[in-house]
Amino acid sequence: MTRRIPIFSTIVVIAAAMTMVGLGIWQLQRKAEKEALIVRYEAAVSNPQPVTYPVASQTAVDAALYRRSTIECAFTSGDWRSISGRNASGQSGFVHIVLCGIDKGPPQRDRTAYVQVGWSRDPAAPKWDGGPVSGWIVPNSEGFARLVADPPLAGLEPNAPPDPGDLPNNHLAYAVQWFFFALTALVIYVLALRRRGRIS
């Protein structure tokens, strides 16, 4: 005898599976958006026209990423951050980042800017009190962006050139995971029903 399928439980499982599928589709959309963003940033790297930096809003920062700019670092905060990074030859070591104060410029501009001064094998902070900086604007974990000095400063070695291709683009993997979760939920539910004798 065939027993009836529980309606409420079925609705819950199907709704959950549809939600997972929706999240997978959203990740595929994010993948396409990230790929378009990387293409735009790659075009920005080859654009020789410098832009004003720092800027006053996150939207303006997004438009300036991977473009060249020049600032006058009037003074440094002295609070250095040394993180793992590569030099222009691809060698592993440390890049040295400091917050600069900027005295000149329009009032609407931020008066501070993070600068990646250069690369070394030594994690110790270099000695540098400021001055003119020319380089590339790249994403930063603090302050939205930083200026990667090119040429390097403080006697350090050249930084690795910015590469938009280094931006993480794991959205396809996330989409596959969500689709797999949806399929797994449906298969487990069907097997559970069969085991309990809900369907013949």
Describe this structure in words.
36% of the residues lie in helices and 24% in strands. It has a domain at 48-166: OB fold (Dihydrolipoamide Acetyltransferase, E2P) (Beta Barrel). By secondary structure, the chain is α+β, with helices and mostly antiparallel strands. The mean pLDDT is 88. The relative contact order is 0.20. Strand 3 (81-86) and strand 4 (92-101) form a beta hairpin. The protein has helices spanning 7-45, 58-64, 171-195, and strands at 68-73, 75-76, 81-86, 92-101, 112-120, 131-139, 145-149. It starts with 6 loop residues before the first helix and ends in a 5-residue tail after the last helix.
Please specify the SSE layout and strand pairing.
Blueprint: H1 7-45, H2 58-64, E1 68-73, E2 75-76, E3 81-86, E4 92-101, E5 112-120, E6 131-139, E7 145-149, H3 171-195
Parallel strand pairs: 5-7
Antiparallel strand pairs: 1-6, 2-4, 3-4, 4-5, 6-7
Q: Gist?
A:
The protein is α+β, with helices and mostly antiparallel strands.
Low-confidence stretches: none
What would you call the structural class?
alpha+beta
CATH topology of the domain at 48-166: OB fold (Dihydrolipoamide Acetyltransferase, E2P)
The arrangement of helices and strands along the chain is: HHEEEEEEEH
Q: Taking Cα atoms only, what radius of gyration do you get, to the nearest Å?
A: 25 Å
Q: Give the overall shape, derived from the CA principal axes.
A: elongated
Helix content: 25-40%
Mean pLDDT: 88
Number of separate helices: 3
Q: Give the CATH level 1 class of the domain at 48-166.
A: Mainly Beta
